[in-house]
Structure formats: structure tokens, C-alpha cells
Amino acid sequence: MRASRDRAGTALSLGFVTTFLTVLVVLPIAALVWESTKAGSQGFWDAVSSPESVAALKLTIGTAVAVSLLNAVLGTITAWVLVRDEFRGKSLVNAIIDLPFALPTIVAGLTLLALYGPRSPIGVDVAFTRTAIVLAMMFVTLPFVVRTVQPVLQELDPEAEEAARSLGASGLTSFRRVIFPNIFPGVLSGMALALAKAIGEFGALVIITGNLPFKTEVSSVYIFGRIESGDTAAAASVAVVLLALSFVLLLSIGVIRHFATRHDRA
Amino acid sequence: MSIVVRSVSKRFGDFVAVDDVSLEVEGGSLTALLGPSGSGKSTLLRIIAGLEWPDSGEILLSERDATALAPQKRNVGFVFQHYAAFKHMTVRDNVAFGLKVRRRPKNEIRERVDELLNLVQLHGFGDRYPAQLSGGQRQRMSLARALAPEPQVLLLDEPFGALDARVRAELRDWLIRLHDVVHVTTVFVTHDQEEAMEVADQIAVLNHGRLEQVGPPRELYDEPASKFVMTFVGDANVIDGALVRPHDVELLTEPDEAAMEAMIVRVTILGRDAKVELHDDGGAEIVALLTRERFEELDLWRGQTVWVRPQRERVFTT
Fold this sequence. Notes:
The complex is a heterodimer. Chain A is mainly alpha-helical. Helices cover about 80% and strands about 0% of the residues of chain A. Chain B has 9 helices and 17 strands. The interface between A and B is medium-sized, with 20 and 33 residues.
């Protein structure tokens, strides 16, 4: 009785999750794939392999990967400072971390343009350059690694570090061999989120990058351009490739994470 | 491999954790730091390990000043109450940690780890992760880990505190046997006076950050230096302002001029002994411990009025 009721419960919640995911994620993606096939396989290939589309894809993926790696380092340091150090205004800093989430990304783009554009009050003009892309992507992905590493650091047993020290490890060695392996899965999760967000970012980039083809045009903006010129099939084709590449990247991060956390499942 | 603690003090804000403590631990001995929680025993142990810095005073390890030495330079093995296992490493890698950090040759590490896993009876568990071990096994693993680099001293902070009673007793016996084999100078912290009496050959009693008395278990019990030691190490009655051990309370069925009247409120048979609880006419509680023989001879019963004659009373001014 008990077991069958549990099974029924599982089936119910599984059904709920499946429906939910189907309606919100799977169906729209299926529709997108369907849209991309409208121009036929030749049309798909042409849209995807056009030099401008390839350049945009390369730029997007390359910059997003660089940004998530940068985030891994800076986000970990930020989380470390927020957890381990005591200073005045700590809770303020903690609150500021989430602000990029609250801001419409187009506003983020405007803000960055005002600060680092041609009329920069501090004399730094990076508008319409690839540096601007990195800046904008960094801005919108800042919270991810911080927020995934912070709780792990908080829960880390300080005695494990002390044990490492008493066993002869220097501060650096104990970070490398005891702390880092524990926060690494958190870093990876944050990186994956940052990567996904960076690849898909549009609002923060569209203003500050100038959208110069072959130079500062990222895929999301390129796709927007295709839609504007009425070529939705091409837009969908590039989107499908972008999606597939993101999926592969996220999956690889997931695999690494799986190995980094094998002791938890033991 | 002796330890000398010379007038060490440590405060946390307004709280005085360790108050001018001096203590000598002979090389090869097994010493207990005994005291209630907040008595400073763990802080003192952590100061010896270098995990905490004293505000004043000195620590000497093997007659060399170690006060300013970082923990990793002290060659001290430390065992924590909650194991402090490296969760992401196998048992084998946990034990090997101190040797790997010292860049010992691989085959030497393998041999040493095997030897230690045998010693702590964890052979065959080397490839498991700490999460797959029981509490007792985890603590044995941390012991092996602490012993691997052949430390000068082994420090244990309430090592059995997180374990259930049976495993606790088992590990206690096992620590004594281990110490007979390894002979490393060992200091362990405990709040359990029975544990200290059973395991240690020297006990240092701490209270409110101050050292009350140091000596072999028997000396602490027979010749306590203060009221605190007398009541903390073993049981004691307060009769007329003097302290008396329960087995030094003599019961008489007839009035006696040196004895006071009391009524038996409870009798408990504890194997070979009998525990008799009494109330004197002021209502104060007195506990007497009698041999079964004496108990049967007196033929005592609950509600009976008897006369209490304390032997070997002690009066402390502090």
C-alpha cells in the first residue's frame, strides 16, 4: 500500500515537472527548430555558415567563455572576501552584488555607455570595441559565481583547514588541496550560469557594442538583425546553432562537476 | 618530546579563556586536560598546536621555543572532535595528506599509509570516502592522519565527544593501547572525569581558565587541592561546610555524639555497592556509598532514621 502510494506520488510530481518543462522550455525550442527548417537544409546551412554569422558566433562563444573564466576567478575572490573578512559596509556590498539582476539589461548598457563611452566622465572610452562586450557581459553575470560559491564557503568546515595546517600544509597548499576542491563544484555551477547568461545577453550589448559586423556584433544582435530584415528562418537557424553550442558547453561543465562531486554520492 | 606551557594567557574580548596557566607535560606521557565547558581546556590545546595565539606566555616543544611558530612548523598531530575529515579525499588520501605535503617518496607514503590503516584497523577501507565511514571509523582515520607524519606530540580535542557511549568506551581502550605502541607524547581534552581517570597518567584540571591542580588520577581523587577539584573529580557531599566522599560517609543505626541524624529517602543497589540517599533535618541531601556487606549488616530501609558520621572530611578555603 505504502509503496504504491509513494509511487503514485512520484508519478504525480514527475508528471507535473515534465508538463511544466515541456510547456516552458521544450515546446518553444521545438518551435524554434521547426522554424529553422523552413528554408530547407540548404537554407539552414547558408544562414549558419555566412561569414557574418560565423564571426558573430565565434565572437559570442569566445567572449562568453572568457567572461565566465574571468568570473570564476573574480567571483570566487569576491565570495571569499564576503565570507571570510569582516569590514564595515559588508552587508551593503553584499546587497550590491545582486543589483545587476534587478536592472533591465538595456539600462545596464546605457549606464556602461555613459561611463565608458565617448563622453566618459573618467576619460575611458571603450564603446564599440570588444572590451565593451567583455565589460557588459561581466556586468550582467557578476552575481552568479559569487552566489554559488558563497554558501559553499560558509558551510566549509574551518577545522578541515586547521587540520591541513597542523599536518604541515602552508596557507596556499591548504587552499589548493582542501578548500578549492570543495568550492570547485560551486565555481563550476556559477560559471555555467554565467556562460549561459553571457551567450544569450542582448540588452546590455546592443547599445554599447555598436554592432559592427565582423568586429563587435554578437550572435544575439545578429539574430535580431535577421528578424528585423524579415528573415526569421535564418534567425532561427543561427539561434538553433547557438543553442546547440551552449548545450554542449553546459553539458561539459556538468560532466566535470559530476566528477568533482563524486565523493558526495559515495 | 616534552611540552612546556609557561604562564600562558588568552582572552576573547572580555572573556578570559586561559588565565596564566603553566604546565609541564613529560615526553611520552598521556595527559588529560579536564574541565567543564568554558574552562579553557580546548583553547589551551589549540594554543599548544599553534591554532590560537596566546596573548602572553610561552610554549616550548621539546625544549625549543615554539610560541611564534606557525602550526605547520610545529610537527604536531591534531585530532578534532568532529573529525575534520577531508571529505573530497579517500581514506587513503586523508591519511597520506601530511606525507604528501612533505613530499615524501611515493612508495614510502604507500607503505606508511598501509601500516597506519592496519594500526587503526581500517585496512580495506582505504578507497572509501569519509562519508561512507561510521563516526568511530572516521575518528580512527583522523588519528591515523595525525600520526602519519610522525608528530612530536599528539593533541586530541574531545576526541570521543561526538560518539555514542559504546563506541566511546571502545575507542578509549583503544587509545590507551595505541599509546602503549606508539609512545608519542599525547594530550587530550575532555570534560568527562571518568574518561580522564581511565585513560590519562596525568590530569590537569582547569576551571575558569585557571589551572586548579595537576597530578596522577589517584592523587587528584585522594588529595584534591581545591573544592572544585574535589567536586569535579569524583562525587562529594557538603556536610557542615566540609566535603566528604560518599564512601567516607559512615552510617550508624544508633545515636552517636559525633553523628547527625538523617532519614533515608532512597536506596539503590549498584552491583557490589549500595547507594543510600539521605536528608538531614535541614533537608540537605547526603549520599552515602556502602559495600553490599555493610549494607546488609545494617539492614537499612527507606524512611529509616540513621546517624551520619563523616570520615576524612576536607575543608577548603578556596
